[in-house]
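Email to the structure team, subject: Adenosine 5'-phosphosulfate reductase model.

Hi all, the expression group asked for a predicted structure before they design truncation constructs. Nothing fancy, just the tokens so they can compare against earlier work. One-line instruction: predict Adenosine 5'-phosphosulfate reductase, return tokens.
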Amino acid sequence: MSEFPETRWQALQDSLASVAQEFPNAVVASSLAAEDMVLTHALSELGFPLAMLTLDTGMLPAPTLALLETVRQHYGCAIEVWRPEEQALQHYVAEHGAYAFYESVALRKSCCQIRKVEPLRRALQGRGAWVTGQRRGQGVTREDLPLSEFDTAFGLQKFNPLAEWSHDEVWQLIRHFEIPYNTLHDQGYPSIGCDPCTRAVKPGEDLRAGRWWWESSDSKECGLHGANLQRNTVEQETQNHG
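Reply from the structure team: attached below.
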């Protein structure tokens, strides 16, 4: 087996155990990405003290949906699946078209709002905290990502225990523990979202270059992590006036 970052691994388990102790009703939001699979494995080692949820947007690639079932079978954990409101989807398509998200950032974010943000808002109601698999190295909008923050958008505490991890450390863990992962990662997809909004990246490209590839790199958030864009905007304004 490959070597892995022992200190990081132990710190991750300690962090998740601490969150569970302080916020027993906290939930881990998983997109079934490589980072989220590391979180899933860490939770399994702890006996799943935290609930897990995922968002089925209605446009996920087949390998992502297949992994959801693999996780259920491999770990025996029940992952809550939250879906968008059908009426809101029908209204969006009727007014703008099924693929209007290609036309502007505003229409893309509107689609994300319906398919991701609103379902997550429902899923987080009544909870004291949520946990993500975000890392600082995933893109310019996440460079200043804290390990813990109060999420003003959803009104609860938010933990990013993998914030300081590198891409290589994530994959060292996956290989060491033979953690199941999305097969699209082997096809050049380091970051995977909805099928129409995700492509494989080219050698040397940013890890999130394949997400909403037609947009500027500083807008590549779907609304689930609004604070990332706010921090990025503040950083840009500081540099412009520095």
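Confidence is low (pLDDT under 50) at residues 231-241. The longest strand covers residues 51-55. Ping us if the truncation boundaries need rechecking.
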